[in-house]
Design brief:
single chain; about 200 residues; alpha+beta; five-stranded antiparallel β-sheet; 4 helices; 5 strands; about 35% helix
Length: about 200
């Protein structure tokens, strides 16, 4: 059979396409398996670094990543809670919470002591407008540090708002929605912690 004519047949073209697809898929699977451990390790290191940023130095002597539980809040959201311990005793908790900002969800990492006093807050992910909404980043301004040492017990719930809404937290010119969302996320995060304090602290022992 003429090889040139055979190559023009549909069966040949289909087989060639199938082979090409198979080889490409195999290469992608191999590459994914090879890089997944490194990606997961990098993600763990990033999270571990973030955890240390919202907790005072020396407040815990355990591995927070290895001492975590999932707690379901009143809205059905599953919240990963990382528990700090000092000499075996519950000493801190760190967890993510979020609220809708101007351009999407703003996810914050909140650190608290056993009494629910904020030890630190950091923004993990957001899509806010550069130059306006991104002032919530610790690398941009110190605004995010205004939550430190505050608690639900330490001031009225109405104070947990931006000043434009009668609260104590500053807003940004032209970007009130963004800080309002962060304050909401932290406030609701503290309410979550208060509601599940017994579960979180008991589980850490």
């Amino acid at each position: 059979m003429d090889l040139a004519l055979w190559r023009e047949r549909i069966t040949y073209q289909g087989a060639l396409l199938a082979l090409s697809t198979f080889l490409t898929s195999t290469a992608l699977v191999v590459a994914n398996r090879a890089t997944t451990p490194a990606i997961e390790q990098a993600a763990r290191e990033d999270l571990k670094q973030s955890l240390t940023q919202v907790l005072p130095t020396g407040v815990a002597d355990n591995d927070l990543l290895a001492d975590a539980i999932v707690v379901v809040d009143s809205g059905g959201r599953q919240v990963n809670v990382y528990r700090g311990r000092k000499a075996g005793q519950f000493s801190a908790a760190v967890f993510e919470y979020s609220a809708r900002g101007y351009a999407g969800e703003i996810v914050v990492l909140i650190g608290v002591d056993p009494a629910g006093v904020v030890t630190g807050v950091r923004v993990l992910r957001h899509s806010e407008t550069p130059g306006l909404g991104d002032k919530i980043d610790a690398a941009k301004t110190n605004w995010i540090r205004s939550f430190e040492q505050k608690s639900l017990a330490g001031m009225p719930l109405a104070s947990w708002a931006v000043k434009k809404d009668g609260g104590v937290f500053d807003q940004f010119a032209g970007a009130t929605i963004t800080p309002r969302a962060v304050v909401k996320a932290v406030r609701e995060g503290l309410q979550f912690y208060a509601a599940h304090h017994a579960e979180i602290s008991e589980a850490a022992r």
